[in-house]
Design a protein that fits this description.
The strands form 7 sheets. Strands 2, 3, 4, 5, 10, 18 and 19 form a 7-stranded mixed sheet that branches. The protein is about 35% helix and about 20% strand. The longest helix has about 30 residues. It is of the alpha+beta class and about 725 residues long.
């Protein structure tokens, strides 16, 4: 008989099974307890630790696209520099947080240790510049001006410089071909801010912390196209900053190139001539103040009359855009923005506002025609115009008797326009305007585009000011309290003016309209507005949006997006009035005209020149010089603040620009081999199969040598560009 139980298990086997079951249950209980401990008891703590393991992105900035002139000459591009960078991640692994390495690095670079350490510290609300506001996992640039010898020392002694790299990197450059800085037109770059990153994060062009963005000029307007797309490599790191692996990598895409309508050669001449005109004006004595003209600022615009494309735009004082590359120093920043700087960052062609003086008379003549006055009727050009006990005198002309509006432009007769402006003011009801008041002079100014932006593709354009009835009311509302507090009946001149403004500053008075008719008083315009208006007279009436961008070309050259000319309206006058204005402006250059003394020998039969001089009086300052001109192809407007008369200060410079463009000498002889741009540039630069844009060789313009009385040439060089 067998001793084996019915189950087939001996007591010994059963005992073992029980022990195994107890062990399994114990292990399960232990595992469950551990899971409870990890997920329930200390779940928040470990969740925080897990959150320390995250992804960090290292950015390789895209190569920014170039800004080119109309023929492909670079105005802004990139150059390869030796950039020394520090890896903050590697430095933080060292016992002294990399202080010894950075001190040795400072010795090699010729910098102070504190300067280097400040550059690699992270920015926050309490940390002043310099500091790093990008990702701490991004290599932090210490300098972009390392020499080859310094880079070799760092690379050959890598054991002494752990975490330090010295590599060639593309850096923005403004080459100023033939000394054409084009400062305010190009603008400059600076690092993106946290606020900008947040605003752009949900757009189709988000910023990365490493991005350099355009702050003004074309760099800002076309920033999205020029910036490209940075390369991004993502790394998994733990909370201590240790890299655990690479998760993904997106290659960068270079920025597109911007072709502009600027001609670098004409730009150089425009800058040089403006500079020389201001310099010359400072040698002339102002007969009113008895001291030399200050000529403290100026601007010039050269535009294609039929398209609105800007060929050249210069503003003085200017600056070197390269001073912003790699971060501007506090000293240089103070020079550009301090109270004694005269603010060279301002583009006075689109941001400089002043009364236009007599170049405004084309608007007034047009307003008179709209009001029902015949352009070719006779209007009395007396030596002065009286309003009660007040007398308004001619500034640039004496009395000429009865003349047409065209002759009023030729002689720049103020009194003709005084009378017309006063007459229309009275017709509209004077200080008690009719409900159906036409206000032709003010309305026409608005219709010429004044008091509004022209739409130029540059940021921060100002509107100027047309002091019509509504503006008078708004201005009075904003200032009446101060006027009433300051004003005093029978007090000083300033106190008396404030007193009168307090009582009736909201009224458009006869004197306001009389002054307005000749571009004086409270009116403000910009050079780009007047260039747009005169170009419209030249082209038959179209008010074009001034444009500088001509085309955006992809890095590979396969995609070309042209920027066509666009308009924002037409002049509010018919073809006959435009033709009459044109004829009147032709006579300004002819015998007896206010600009004739500046255009002796000009080939009027081959290249008809139209012009209008302007000399604007400004309270407390010397007169502002204005000179507005156009040919069949181009419009040029120049202004010099506190520079004197229009033809006296600006006239020679404007003529020199035209002579360079058309290849003329002083006697009016044309040499097309010398001509910089005898006709507007058509088409785009040649694009090679690899996407590069061919740039022609460019040389400084040298004007033809003037001749003495015997016909012998006198040696001469180009005008001086800088003091």
């Amino acid at each position: 008989m067998s001793n084996i139980p019915e189950t087939g298990r001996t007591p010994r086997v059963q005992t073992r099974l029980v022990i195994i079951q107890v062990l399994v249950v114990s292990l399960l209980l232990t595992l469950g307890g551990r899971l409870w401990y990890l997920q329930i008891r200390n779940g928040d703590e470990y969740a925080d630790e897990a959150n320390g393991n995250h992804v960090q992105r290292v950015v390789q900035p895209a190569v920014r696209g170039a800004i080119l002139d109309a023929r492909g000459v670079p105005l802004a591009d990139n150059e390869t520099r030796l950039v020394v960078s520090a890896s903050r991640t590697e430095l933080m692994k060292m016992k002294d947080d990399g202080e010894a390495v950075l001190t040795r690095l400072a010795g090699v670079l010729g910098m102070e240790p504190k300067e280097v350490m400040d550059k690699v510290r992270l920015c926050n609300a309490e940390t002043p510049q310099p500091c790093w506001n990008g990702s701490p996992y991004q290599p932090i640039p210490v300098t972009d001006e390392a020499t080859t010898q310094q880079a070799l020392q760092i690379r050959e002694r890598s054991e002494d410089f752990p975490g330090i790299t010295a590599e060639p990197t593309a850096v923005r450059r403004y080459p100023a071909p033939v000394d054409a800085r084009t400062s305010q037109v190009l603008g400059y770059l600076s690092p993106v801010t946290d606020e900008e990153i947040q605003k752009a994060k949900d757009t189709d062009s988000p910023y990365l912390r490493s991005d350099q963005v355009g702050r003004s000029g074309l760099e800002r307007t076309y920033d999205k196209e020029l910036r490209g797309q940075a390369g991004v490599t993502s790394y998994e790191v733990d909370k201590l900053g240790r890299v655990m692996g690479e998760s993904e990598s997106d290659p960068g895409v270079p920025g597109s190139n911007l072709v502009t309508s600027i001609d670098a050669r004409v730009q150089a001449v425009a800058e040089a001539e403006l500079h020389e005109a201001m310099k010359t004006a400072r040698t002339q004595v102002d007969k009113i103040t008895g001291r030399p003209y200050e000529a403290d600022a100026g601007a010039v615009v050269v535009m294609e009359s039929r398209t609105g494309r800007v060929i050249a735009m210069a503003s003085q004082p200017d600056y070197d855009p390269n001073s912003w590359v790699g971060g501007i120093s506090a000293k240089d920043y103070a020079k550009l923005t301090g109270k004694d700087s005269n603010y060279p960052l301002l583009n006075r062609a689109i941001q400089g506002q002043a009364a236009p003086g007599s170049i405004f008379k084309v608007v007034s003549a047009s307003a008179a025609v709209r009001a029902g006055h015949d352009f070719n009727d006779r209007y009395n050009c007396s030596s002065s115009y009286s309003l009660g006990s007040r007398s308004f005198a001619n500034f640039e002309s004496q009395g000429h008797g009865p003349i047409t509006l065209g002759e009023a432009l030729k002689f720049s007769c103020n009194t003709v326009f005084y009378a017309l402006g006063h007459q229309e003011w009275k017709r509209d009801g004077g200080i008690k305007p009719k409900k159906d008041a036409h206000d032709w002079f003010y309305r026409t100014a608005h219709d010429f585009g004044l008091g509004s932006e022209t739409g130029i593709d540059l940021p921060n354009e100002v509107t100027g000011r047309i002091p019509d009835r509504q503006w008078k009311k708004d201005f009075w509302t904003a200032n009446k309290d101060a006027w009433c507090k300051q004003g005093k009946k029978g007090g000083t001149y300033v106190e008396q003016i404030a007193y009168e403004n307090c009582l009736e500053g909201n009224q458009l008075k006869a004197g306001d309209s009389i002054n307005f008719s000749i571009g004086q008083g409270d009116i403000l315009v910009t050079p780009i507005q007047m260039a747009t208006a005169y170009a419209a007279i030249s082209n038959g009436g179209t008010l074009y949006d001034p444009t500088i961008g001509k085309a955006v070309i992809s890095p590979d050259g396969k995609k070309i997006t042209e920027i066509p000319p666009t308009s924002h309206g037409r002049l509010p006058i018919g073809k006959k009035t435009i033709a009459d204005l044109d004829k009147g402006l032709l006579s300004v250059v002819g015998p007896g005209g206010t600009a004739s003394w500046r255009f002796g020998g000009w080939p009027q039969d081959k290249i008809p020149m139209r012009a209008k001089t302007g000399t604007a009086q400004v309270y407390g300052k010397q007169t502002t010089s204005w000179f507005a001109t156009y040919t069949d192809d181009y419009t040029i407007v120049m202004t010099i603040s506190q520079g004197g008369t229009g033809s006296g200060a600006s006239g020679p410079a404007v003529r020199n620009i035209y002579e360079a463009m058309y290849g003329l000498d002083e006697q009016g002889n044309q040499d097309l081999k010398r001509a910089l741009l005898p006709a507007p540039q058509k088409g785009l630069p040649k694009i090679s199969s690899d996407g590069t844009i061919d740039a022609p060789e460019i040389r400084p313009y040298v004007p033809p040598a003037p001749k003495d009385g015997t016909g012998t040439e006198v040696l001469a060089g180009p005008p001086a560009r800088r003091d």
